[in-house]
Amino acid sequence: MKPTLKDIRPLGFQWQTQDPFLFCAHHHDFFPRGLPDMSPEAGLENRMIGQDFSGKDGWSMYHGSKVPGFPAHPHKGFETVTIVEKGLVDHSDSLGAAGRFGNGDTQWMTAGKGVMHSEMFPLLNEKEGNELHLFQIWLNLPKTKKNVPAHFKMMWKEEIPVETVRDSNGKTTEIKLIAGKYGERRALPPAPDSYAADPSNEVAIWLIKAAPDASFILPEVSQGTNRSLFFYRGDYIDLEGERISNDHSIDLGDMKSFEIKNGSQTGYFAFLQGKPISEKVVQHGPFVMNSNQEIQEAVHEFQRTQFGGWPWKSHEHTHEKGRGRFAIHADGREEIK
Q1: What's the CA dihedral at 276, 278, 279, 281 to 10 degrees?
Q2: The whole model's pTM is what?
Q3: Does residue 298 contact residue 77 with C-beta atoms inside 8 Å?
């Protein structure tokens, strides 16, 4: 392997990332038609309800018992960036905030000193299947930001910049900018206390769609900056003289730019970049701190306070079926799309 390519790995359900990222989960479910209560029309027999990651018949219930998803659970000490390309997510949290987002939207949540939230996948379509395609990226916080106030920000699809570039043969590549910049085009600002809020950290989160036979450039970065390209759909790419098939991630060397030559099918990629935080990471489930003692303190704090308690009727809270995309923030501010 060339020294400019640090590592090439097969992809799995949970993608391995580099500092400052902790991991990326990739969900692509083809749920059946929904019932009036937004649960799957297909029966739930032969599934381990509460712990179903089987992918049976092309979908999983995850931790949901009626509606698929992730009932109320805590986070502390890091950030989640949830990019929903297809389908919808119902968010509820211990701050009293809520929302329904998806079909191109992104939610950026800084857990900071602690928050409890649920992420349920309501199956609104009763006439045909309900496809869900999302990425959830865990971005670490440095020690100085581990205890900032919890906060979430919505990035609605109508506002997220998409840069279209053409190669010398006129082939196009679309780059959806969740964080960072490409050329002169900048993403929306992240959550205010985010590690990505400081441009000197060079954090980039992009989704890339390359036409068949298109070439595109990943620009050069500062020394020490980590970069990973996740090739999750397509046939192959040519990079630095190597042919790499889909379902692989590539950790790239720093400083130089890279030309990616896509194969004969449309290529789909996720790209993560950032300067490493370079601090000790101690993780215990949804708590990410810098020492074992801090983890113990975080667990005890959650047991004592529930990070504000749970103001909703159910830990698997879903919103009214007829509601569209919306967000209600902890301060009462409401956004409707």
Answers
A1: 60
A2: 0.97
A3: yes
